[in-house]
Amino acid sequence: MPPTNLILYGPPGTGKTYQTAAEALRLCQEPVPDSREDLIEAYHRLRAENRIEFVTFHQSMSYEEFIEGRQPTTEGTQEGSGTGFRLETVPGIFRRIAARAQKGTPPELDENALSLEGRQVFKMSIAQANDAAQNYLFEEAMNEGQTLLGWEDIDFTDEKFSDIQQILQACRDEGEREGEVSLSSGQVAQMDTFRNQMETGDIIVVTKGNSLFRAIGEITGDYEYRQRENRKYCHRRSVRWLWVDRTGVPASEIYDSKFTMRSIYPLDRARLDVAALESYLNSESGPISREAKPHVLIIDEINRANISKVFGELITLIEPDKRIGMPNALAARLPYSGEEFGVPANLHILGTMNTADRSIALLDTALRRRFEFREMLPEPEALRDAARECGLDLPRILTVLNERIEYLYDREHQIGHAYFINCASREDVDGVMRYKVIPLLAEYFFEDWSKVAAVLGDASSDEQMLRGGFMIRDVLKVPPGMEDGDGAPRYRWSLRNGGFDYSGLGGE
């Protein structure tokens, strides 16, 4: 199906956010269940598969969060660096799901497949990949079922080295490095990771430079020390190699960033493509096959952000005919990474917009013409079941409320049926009116309580004290000395205690 850009818009409480779940399933070409429970279950399944992403826009949302930006990281940029920080280009929400959609979805695994559940994942280098003279180390590791680590010719097998302080002391006493050695020094921190933090069953990804990986294995043994003739790479652990490709595969296949030069460190779970990595765990060699399934990005409250600022060059790239593979495909060079970027055709964008929060007329014109708009209005008839439970004519009550709101304000500020949909008693309806609907009306009318009273059916043309179905109006006494003022009466408005009377709304 062609790419879809759709915004569901309407007053609050009309079920826009809930409807996005059904629309997301449809756009993912999945059956849409009739029951709410089955629909939500299917929606969460697709989210777990990383085919649906959900984000809520807000006033401080930025291009750097949505597309890409730079963030400081303390991971060293060179071997042995343990202090300072560097700025790393980090993909934002949209770029991450676009990359997943473009790469495709890895094949589903059977229930007996090897899983990452309960396992740590470490990046590891075995020698320098760009130095042919050290290639024998990688081949030795593959052939002997071992992984190798350099750093100091010191035997750390003694149990006392489970304490990083003891590793530090040994490096100071016996190490080759001159100058100050600290807990953050490479030979201390990375040896602690290799010996103590890495556990049997954990996964290592062996890299080839910073942009490729060439082997994946499962740790099967504890730390060992085996002295070599050249007294280098003496530290090792047993490994069951699960996947090997000496040519190397791009890091982007399993991770949303390039690797750093540190010999060993844990990979950020949030940045791993878990499904892809598990596919590699259960294959033997070569790239894995992928299927270009539909993906959906849901943007709740899309009108609350500065659209031009957040979307940037995407304002053009999201157009259906300008997607990758479409007749007028376009790509833009991103400012931080410098990479060419286009939007895949199998990525759909689904937004919601609360018209009471900001008028549709104020939405960025460039965005409006690139999206389809589908209005969602209150559905009083959806309250028939709740009405039977409560003993109130909820459809009639909601209809009258909204007719009066539209007369006094506009149709975009009506009350949605979702406010009352879960009411099971009259007390529930009273609670919704007292704590949700009436405060919302007060906000709509800027604390003009006479208009709130008019919506609720409690308005009166006389100037006397009033006891309405919802509101109480007391006449304030004129302060001494001001009897000859403007003469206009002033009131104190308050809500009735106990239950409300819905006769003014045609509810009983």
Structural topology:
Layout: E1 5-10, H1 16-27, H2 36-48, E2 52-56, H3 63-66, E3 68-73, E4 86-91, H4 93-103, E5 121-124, H5 135-144, E6 146-149, H6 164-174, H7 186-197, E7 203-208, E8 212-219, E9 224-225, E10 235-250, E11 264-266, H8 274-281, E12 295-300, H9 307-311, H10 314-317, E13 332-333, E14 340-341, E15 347-354, H11 365-368, E16 372-375, H12 384-390, H13 394-408, H14 426-444, H15 449-456, E17 466-467, E18 471-475, E19 491-495
Parallel strand pairs: 1-15, 1-16, 2-12, 5-7, 12-15
Antiparallel strand pairs: 3-4, 5-11, 6-10, 7-8, 8-10, 9-10, 13-14, 17-18, 18-19
Helix pairs in contact: 1-2, 6-7, 13-15
**Whole-angstrom Rg:** 32 Å
> Which class best fits the helix and strand makeup?
alpha/beta
Count of distinct strands: 19
The percentage of residues in β strands lies in 15-25%
Give the overall shape.
Answer: elongated
| Poorly predicted tracts of residues | 76-82
Q: In percent, how helical is the residue content?
A: 25-40%
Tell me the distance between the termini: 49 Å
Biggest beta sheet summary: 7 strands, mixed
The overall pLDDT, averaged over residues, is 87
**Can you count the helices?**
15
